[in-house]
Amino acid sequence: MPTYEYECQACHERVEAVQRFSDPALTTCELCGGELRKVFSAVGIVFKGSGFYKNDSRSSTATSTPSASAD
Hints:
Layout: E1 3-8, E2 14-18, E3 36-39
Antiparallel strand pairs: 1-2, 1-3
């Protein structure tokens, strides 16, 4: 379940709530009774570049041993 962060518009107190997607959003501050609004922030982890998908790995025909043709 995701954790949502809310900020009170009156006292600026921040509250974290673990809620289901189907749960209604919190609307009232427990400290002062003011209006709560969701706080949106940057994503914690971003996957960029190659290596994160199955098709980015080496093919099964690649070998890790050098050829023995040098005599």
